[in-house]
């Protein structure tokens, strides 16, 4: 599927939900994709990209930035505290602040560096033991802590369990965000971004539908 087809589907999902088209940011998730495919999407004028590993992003985006202006990078994968500084230098938005220790580290570095990426807090809506993010019951306290640390919290992020209806998780995330006065919702991927938009997503993270299947290994 092409970038323009995805944009058409986003526009339709927005129209169906009675939302303005500009209310959804498309993050093109370029992890593991060959550079030619990424360059092709840059050539079509797209500038907002997502990566899930700091190291991988550091290996390719500085070069792309020499050739293309206005690139905005979003970190969507787990962040280890020892990579936080590098992440804050590279990314404009971090969606995967998933525990107090990471929030505290970012806050301390932000003081030192004098700038901070926009922040989304990751909520483990499916309460999966292997998955990152705070439990829904701890979400309000985590939002309060991040705000007390002066982090620029834009919203919440989730990755629904693979074997469950994603819209239940999108609705839960939207509810937690609303009661905390947060407008940003990072939810929806290639297979479910339309239902995420219907439930209020402001940032959708779409990889394979734009770039094709990822070749791992
Ligand atoms: C890889 C990834 C995506 C994109 O997944 P697709 O199914 O390829 O669209 C979205 N969000 C996160 C957190 C990811 O790691």
TrEMBL record:
SUPFAM superfamilies: PLP-binding barrel
N6-(pyridoxal phosphate)lysine modifications at: 31
Superkingdom in the source lineage: Bacteria
Record-annotated membrane-spanning stretches: none
Gene3D superfamilies on file: Alanine racemase
Coiled-coil residue spans: none
Pfam families: Ala_racemase_N (PF01168)
Similarity section: Belongs to the pyridoxal phosphate-binding protein YggS/PROSC family.
NCBIfam families: YggS family pyridoxal phosphate-dependent enzyme (TIGR00044)
Name assigned to this protein: Pyridoxal phosphate homeostasis protein
Organism: Seohaeicola saemankumensis
């Amino acid at each position: 599927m092409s970038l323009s087809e995805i944009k058409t589907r986003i526009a339709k999902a927005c129209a169906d939900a009675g939302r303005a088209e500009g209310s959804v940011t498309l993050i093109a998730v370029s992890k593991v994709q060959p550079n030619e495919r990424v360059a092709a999407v840059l050539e079509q004028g797209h500038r907002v990209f997502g990566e899930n590993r700091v190291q991988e992003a550091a290996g390719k985006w500085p070069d792309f930035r020499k050739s293309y202006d206005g690139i905005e990078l979003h970190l969507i994968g787990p962040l280890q505290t020892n990579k936080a500084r590098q992440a804050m230098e590279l990314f404009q938005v971090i969606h995967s602040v998933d525990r107090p220790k990471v929030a505290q580290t970012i806050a301390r570095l932000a003081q030192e560096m004098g700038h901070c990426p926009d922040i989304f807090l990751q909520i483990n809506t499916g309460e999966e033991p292997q998955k990152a993010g705070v439990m829904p019951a701890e979400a309000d306290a985590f939002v309060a802590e991040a705000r007390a640390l002066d982090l620029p919290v834009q919203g919440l992020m989730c990755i629904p369990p693979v074997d469950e209806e994603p819209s239940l998780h999108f609705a839960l995330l939207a509810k937690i965000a609303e009661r905390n006065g947060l407008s940003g919702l990072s939810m929806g991927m290639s297979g479910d971004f339309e239902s995420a938009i219907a439930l209020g997503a402001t940032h959708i993270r779409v990889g394979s539908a734009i770039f094709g299947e990822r070749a791992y290994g």
